[in-house]
Amino acid sequence: MSAWHAGAMQHGALWAGSQMNLAHWIWVATAAYGIHALEEFILDWRDRARAVIRLPVEWAHFYVVNFLVIVLGIVAANLAEAAPALALSFPALMLINGIFFHVVPVIVTRGRFSPGLFTAIVLLLPIGLICYRVASDAGKLDLVSLVSSLLIGAALMATPIVLLRIKDRPYFRQA
Known about the structure:
Elements: H1 3-11, H2 22-42, H3 45-52, H4 59-79, H5 84-87, H6 89-108, H7 117-137, H8 143-166
């Protein structure tokens, strides 16, 4: 069996024989997130978020949040070598988004489509898992890194939701 075939069997055909490291995969993850945001926009995620999870979101919020997510991906890719646990918070955000904001809601609503579901399944989940696998294979993933990256990813995912939920409370009104 060739080394390529052995690598394909051990790591999955997507990156078999590849020299891609964690930084490279986080760059791929960042591009995948951009494609995910495109699906959400074109298939009207905003109206679904309003109807299903009662999130008071406007398109301007969507634009700013997704711009910031792309910036976070760029930062994570650049930090991958020096701070892998921090860099892994980006794939963690992708996994949390894909699972809890797309796959689970479709199950809970008995099959009601969630804009972003296709790219969550095809891009966010596999690429997010690949990032963790690459970090693990490189010896950069221990329990502390895993837990801290997931907690940071969850905090990043929760921040815009919390802000949208509190923005209309009297203390936060600016008018």
